[in-house]
Amino acid sequence: MKLYVVRHGQTEWNALKKMQGSADIPLNERGKEQAQETKSNLENINFDIIICSPLIRARQTAEIINSDRNLDIIFDDRLRERNYGEFEGTIKSSFNYNDFWAYNKNLKYIKAENVQDFFKRIYNFLDEIKISYSDKNILIVCHAGITKAIECYANGMMRDEEIGPYLPNNASVQEYEIR
Q1: Which residues are catalytic?
Q2: DSSP-derived secondary structure letter, 92
Q3: E strands in the chain
């Protein structure tokens, strides 16, 4: 299975360095331009299926990329960004962001989704699509946190101090061969 993983285009909260997690923030103009650029960069790649987070920033990115393809987009709740709970709308420097992503520390929070539970959600999704779409080219449009989990799934778990800093640019594409 070939995965093309796209992080959504920029939002105002991205530009302000705010943590948006499950907050449903739309693309800003730069984000729409980025999605158009990604669409152009992917124009020679055939996808069998597009699977997307239901959050508006990912939906808008997927719809722009898909505008000339007219594929059905499958929206999957498991691709929602990690719930940042009490950290939604804050900036990284206002809490220990790297500890928040430290898999082995597995810190518990009042409202925020636990990192190991989050990874389990994404790994279950990937295990399922690996079985259902083993011979397909799949475009996944999602969020930065999802890309962290997919990177670990495809290439092995990063050290705790590497997970937090791993951050693909908005509307960038990561490519994986999953067997």
Answers
A1: 8, 81
A2: G
A3: 2-7, 49-52, 73-75, 137-142, 173-177
Task: Give the separation between CA 179 and CA 154, rounded to whole angstroms.
Answer: 9
Tokens for 62? 């997927």
Q: Which domains does the chain have, with CATH numbers?
A: 2-177 (3.40.50.1240)
Query: CA 176, 174, 143 angle in degrees (round to 5)?
Result: 115
User: One digit per residue, pLDDT tens: the chain, 179 residues?
Assistant: 999 999 999 999 999 999 999 999 999 999 999 999 999 999 999 999 999 999 999 999 999 999 999 899 999 999 999 999 999 999 989 999 999 999 999 999 999 999 999 999 999 999 999 999 999 999 999 999 999 999 999 999 999 999 999 999 999 999 999 98
CA distances from 124 to 90, 93, 119, 121 (A): 29, 31, 8, 5
**H or E segment and range at residue 40:** helix 29-41
pTM over 0.90: yes
